[in-house]
Specification:
730 residues; alpha/beta; Metallo-beta-lactamase, Chain A; Rossmann fold; 3 domains; eight-stranded mixed β-sheet; 21 helices; 37% helix; binds zinc ion
Amino acid sequence: MPLKVKFVGAVGAVTGSCHLLHYERSNSYYMIDCGLYQAVRGHKDMNKARGEADLGGVSPARIKAIFLTHAHMDHCGLIPRMYKLGFKGPVICTKLTADFVRESLQDTVANVDSFDRDLYDLDDVKAVRFQCPDEKEDFQLGYGYKVMDEADLFYGFSRTGHLAGAVAITFEVNISEGKRETICFGGDLGPQIMQPESSGTLLRPVQYPRESVDYLVLESTYGGQGTRPQLGYDERIEALGFALERALTPERGENPKVIIPAFTLGRTQDLVADLAYLITRTDFAQRIGGVAPAVVVDSSLARKYSNAFRNEFNNWWFKRKDNEHKMRLLNREHAIFDGVIDVEAMLDQLFGGKGGRTVDCHAADGVGFELFYGRMDIHKGPVIYISSSGMCSSGPVMERLRENLKRKDATVIFVGYMPSFLDAAVLKSAAASWKSRTEVAAAFVDGPWFKDNKRLEDFDLSTNEVASVLLDYSGIYSGHADEAGLCDYALKIDNLRYKDRYKPLRIFLVHGEDKPRGKLRRELQRYADTAAPGTCRRLEGIILPDARSGWYDLAQAKWETPPSGEPSWSESLKLMAEASDLQESITEAWFRYKALAGEPVRQAEYLRRIDVLLDNLEQWRLRFRRLTQKALDSESSPAEEQADESYDRQEVYLDVSASASLSAAAAVLGLSGRITRAQSRLAWTTLCREAHPDTKPHATPAEKAELTARMQEINAAQEEILAEFKRLSS
Ligand SMILES: [Zn+2]
């Protein structure tokens, strides 16, 4: 009937969010989010493929508007591409989101070396036209506004507490007299769901979906993630102070340094506020010998975002309106504002302008400190660098880490998510967790500990050279709701007064690997089954769209065309792209290996990489077979089902010195000690090239017999070693 939805991106994956709405009365299409695929195999080709084919045949020119939940690249990064492909409508989002998106898209195109400029260029970014309903005087969050040119289609924004400017978007359509159909796109949800009165965040808390919502589109990235402890603001400041006190005490030297890799948007501003609170409101400076640390925010993008916070606060602070609590996105109740008289001066100190300033507003129990926005090296006294990118994949933080990881007086505090394939993830995995004070304190005594010595090319050192203290505080600073938070958001009856008005709910789970998605599905069901009467919405169903799903008819509550057994175009494309990525990585690692002749330790690292990649390619083969079998509509075997789990398999080491016969077999291949499968495979191939009789056509019969015997020996040795690997991995 009137409204249909299709899930285009981020189905069974965690990036590339993109959904389509088809409003049949006027035959109009709308898009909700248009995110970049990131950090998944094949992402380059998947991004390029975003167009009519993967939009289910809807040409970008046919789409009337793009509604945007928030400014993260995995939700907005392909918007300029839509313009490049003929989209002419506006991007509808909050003013803050528009400011952030404009900055980050321009920054990406201009400054990120790895960005693929074939996707779009600066002109396409400039073509993006924003429409921000919250610029209007009478705008209210949670209220339904008419979608332009449509007689009876409405949309509304509500806060998600995930990022400044982030909103969930609800669409409502009149089906018949008194009957409405409503769908809410949640976007990413913030951690404040569990503690709606929090004073420790710069964002105002989440607004729950309205009671009239029939469908909720929920992101399942964090399904299966256990409940995180919730800290009050004092506890968080205390935990941060505990680490910083140990990091910056004079006992660690005259010029101790702290590096905090942080996302430029949101996390950086939270950290600035927290550090300001710690230094100006507590006796922190006394505890580290009386000298307040300088704080440097060294990304220009972070500075621009801070300035945007400054402006937004200004709006809500100094232009008060009657219904302002319904409009505000930022949190005026943050503890940093308690008792402050000159708020404007404080906001200027924290988030305004650029360059250096002294932050001393309301330094009641503490002292003032120097805060710098811009590239700046402080050589004297304690210093804290807040540096981007938060994932340590590019930007000024790379230089900071290269300079400081070998220093004993440096401390690195991780506060954000980090994909496992990055070198920095190796550092984070060795970091002491904030959850245990003992562990944190011990880290300052013992230094970091790594299971294996690994070469980290990104930082130009090996893990055994890392001397700085590594701490993991990401649990405190998560921008995401945990599983319990997601369940609450979806199902909790938030407004008890209207508990009889809540409509039964159907939930689409998107944006998440199959595993967390399955876990979240079970947890939602459990929540609904066990909740006390009157506290939980009726759960009508949980729907897991996949890449083959067509359009879902909201009024009829069913898929328009049943998903066929045929693999979809985008599914095949994704797999093909993954294979080409894998092969590219293997080739690259092989060239690096060859280039490092004479450096066996670093060579071994590349062999290890190749080994893992070859295993991944093996799993890819199984996946592809599954896909073709799907096309043939035949069952796949359980062994192949397992291959679906994940590509990120760890390497397996075999210690050949453990047995005399193994050690002898390895010696035939010229190997000893701990070896990987790839090492043995490569050694074997090399020997075959040398010893195989076919390579010596002019050999005498006696020589050939000798070569044959040698080949038999080599093959037997390789077989024995492979058998042992097989035993190890099973
Ligand atoms: Zn996000």
